[in-house]
Amino acid sequence: MELGEPQELLVPSNTTESEGSEVLAAVFEPLVTYDENKNAVEAAAESITSDDQKVWTIKLKSGYTWHNGEPLVAQNYVDAWNYAANQENAQSAGYFFGRVEGFADLNPGEGKSVTAKGMEGLEVVDDTTFKVTLAAPFSQFKTMLGYTAFYPLPKAAFGPDGKITQQFGEQPIGQGLFKLDKPYKKGTDQSIDMTVYDKYPGKKPSNWTKLQFKLYTDSDVAFNDLMADNLDIHDSLGPAAIAQAKSSLGERYQDQPDAGVGYIGVPLKYNDELNKVDVRKAISMAIDRKTIAETVFSGTRSPADDFINPAIAGYRQGACKACTYNPAEAKKLYESAGGPKTLEIGYNADGPHKEWIEAVANNLRANLGIDAVAKPFEKFASILDELDAKKYKGLFRMGWAIDYPSAENYLSPIFSTGAIATGSNYGGYSNKKFDDLIAQGDQAPSVEEGLKFYQQADDILNEELPYIPVYFYRNNSGYSKMVKNVHINLLNQVEWADVEKV
Asked: How confident is the model at residue 356 (pLDDT cuts 50, 70, 90)?
């Protein structure tokens, strides 16, 4: 299986990017998965219930054990979630626990010490039951629980100091389908090797037991390995490979709907030249999305016209007015707003992005009359690290593969003020009205009522363009002659138990 290098060691609460998430999804069993209608379905959970959408009771299924043989218990979730939420642990997914009562006690702010032992909203009832009390009602809490951040942790994850150990990060002990064979040494290892866990109570592959994630820094090299049957599954084919894959792989090439969005990211908080809305609108109107989707991506993308993907309820066609290609208006607006004479667009070379980022740079040069340059980074992790450190001031390639199927997931984790410190708000965007609308959507009495507020928050993004949506993904994947029944789910992860060796 092809994979880029994970940004961090393999700790669920510190993993907010797709490469590490794909590995962890093989090692851990989530509380819920999602059916073809995008509804949450219990997995490790026996039931998740609430009478008021504020107090939730989670009961665990019997039969799950950790890879070290210990039983999975409710305390494992409470320990993991409290660790993730505590600001002293600086976990990148800590933001996702912000709705739990007592989160503020674990996040008193910079320069202040944490005095609470945990969030008061987490209560262990017995070994198979725990309660979660939220600060306010949230109708979609159950839907969130399939995300990586909500995985449990065994006692063995923690050292004497209460911190997750490096040993665990290199060789996490999960309660899912696969068990790591050996520690993963980030930066030197070229693969992550696993074996089916024989005591896993769910469905297992029928005729194979070994899984290897092969780490690549070049998507085209991975495609060449696929064509030579030296790689069984490549789930992120690049633009240059798609035409050949269609003709060469036949039924082993897959093109299917995907809930992701591809953006040009904007470092608003760190580059004053990009702070004017009209500058961002001009950049957006200068991008020929239709040609990029049809030519660069061989028709396997569609032009983005909203921050919410069409696969998820809440999308509205044409919501982003400045996403319409209008080069003449773009140039006038850019010049009147005093846009910078040079722009750099960073992208990660370990993914299939070179062609489309260079196409965007060409558009900006031709249509705005400026010097626009595409800058490659060897790995996606390198861009994320520089953004986390607030070092990179150029535009940047960014994508969002959903964590869970909700319109809210395109908004809050990426653009809310709270997500700057402990989420995925790499641009540093902050808007109080946006935050308030998200809160109103969260607390609405139903998913349908909440969607109205989320769409109003989405309107603000479409007007202010903290990121610039360029295309909606489709999943383009291929597999070798050595396997069959390869299915990729809504979270862009392979359904491993269905795969068969030929």
From this structure: very high
Q: Among candidates 433, 412, 410, which has minimal Cα distance to 422?
A: 412
Measuring CA to CA, which residue among 234, 193, 184 is closest to residue 211? 193
Of 426, 446, 442, nearest to 434 by C-alpha is 442
Q: Is 100 helix (H, G, I), strand (E, B) or coil?
A: strand
d(CA 90, CA 83): 9
Ramachandran region, residue 159 (left: φ > 0; alpha: ψ -120 to 50; beta: rest): beta
pLDDT at 250 over 90: yes
Give me the long-range contacts of 225-228 (CB less than 8 A, separation at least 24): 225/2, 226/2, 226/478, 226/479, 226/480
Spatial neighbors of 199 by CB under 8 A, at least 6 apart, are 65, 69
Q: Are strands 371-377 and 191-196 parallel, antiparallel or unpaired?
A: unpaired
Residue range 331-353, pLDDT digits in tens:
999 999 999 999 999 998 887 89
Place of tokens 């702070």: 275
Chain-centre distance for alpha carbon 298: 24
The dihedral through the CA atoms of 138, 120, 122, 431 has a sign that is positive
pLDDT digits (tens, 9 = 90+) for 121-169: 999 999 999 999 999 999 899 999 999 999 999 999 999 999 999 999 9
Q: Is the pLDDT of residue 381 over 90?
A: no
CA distance 304 to 473: 9
Burial per residue of 236-262, b for 16 or more beta-carbon CB atoms within 10 angstroms, e otherwise: bbbbbbbeebbeebeebbbbeebbbbb
Hunting for tokens 């960014």 — which residue is that? 398
pLDDT band at 212 (very low <50, low <70, confident <90, very high): very high
Length of the chain, in residues:
502
Q: What is the pLDDT averaged over residues 473-479?
A: 92
pTM, 2 dp: 0.86
Q: CA–CA separation, 497 vs 101, rounded Å?
A: 37
Residue type, 367: N
Task: Output DSSP code: residue 72.
Answer: P
Cα angle 497-498-499, degrees, rounded to a multiple of 5? 95
- The helix/strand/coil state of 177 is coil
Token couple for 155 = 């006692």
